[in-house]
Amino acid sequence: QPLISSSKWLQLHGLKRNKLSLSQILSQIGFQHRKDYVTTLGKLVASRYADGLFPQYMRAQDGSVYNLTAKKELILHFVDCLMGAIELYKQRMEWLTSESRQIFGVIQERCIVIVLDFGTVAPTEFDLCRDALSMVLVEQVTQIAKFNLIRAAQDLMKWQQKSTPVSEHTVKSAVMWLWKLDYLTAASHTNSAEALLEAMSDEAVSS
């Protein structure tokens, strides 16, 4: 799936885009039962001609009533469409909460710098962090334009001097660099700030 936000995804695949929201469906399978003000009579007059002719549905949101006129085939068509939408939503949720996305979210920027600050993690957790970072490089960074890695430490460590175009070779190189890093004691807050400033100084990085 493309690396886009959920709001953008809903613009492309949401119920409204596919005319499957409740109000859109109701307008296609019936008509609203209205009560209008008649000027000549000077009072509200309810439309009575549909009473008892059609099944009715009341919207809980605003109390509006719809007379349902659609044949069974059309309603079953909307059932199929809604079931398909539910399945698509499930797939999106599973995708959002799997692999690197459950840790890093969905990367939407075209150029990024990942700042590595391992804090006070134990040696075993250090490897888990590198596993997660390797995963995001392979799954998501491969779909963007440029990237770089900077490690917060007493002596700042950079994979490349500036953000580098993404390719199969550069991603593999970054993963290898990541796994060659030595376990170090925790970086200070000053080291972390310096690493962030260094990342933000890259002109290609927008945020």
Helix and strand arrangement:
Blueprint: H1 6-13, H2 22-29, E1 30-33, E2 35-38, E3 43-46, E4 56-58, E5 65-68, H3 72-96, H4 101-104, E6 111-116, H5 123-139, E7 146-151, E8 157-158, E9 164-165, H6 168-180, H7 189-200
Parallel strand pairs: 6-7
Antiparallel strand pairs: 1-5, 2-3, 4-5, 7-8, 7-9
Question: Would you kindly provide a written description of the structure presented here, covering whatever features stand out?
Answer:
With 207 residues, the protein is an alpha+beta fold. It has two domains: 6-97, no CATH class; 102-205, von Willebrand factor, type A domain (Rossmann fold), CATH 3.40.50. The protein is built from seven helices and nine strands. It has helices at 6-13, 22-29, 72-96, 101-104, 123-139, 168-180, 189-200, and strands spanning 30-33, 35-38, 43-46, 56-58, 65-68, 111-116, 146-151, 157-158, 164-165. The strands form three sheets. Strands 6, 7, 8 and 9 form a four-stranded mixed sheet that branches. A hairpin with a 6-residue loop joins β4 (56-58) and β5 (65-68). The protein is elongated and about 85 Å long. This is VWA3B protein.
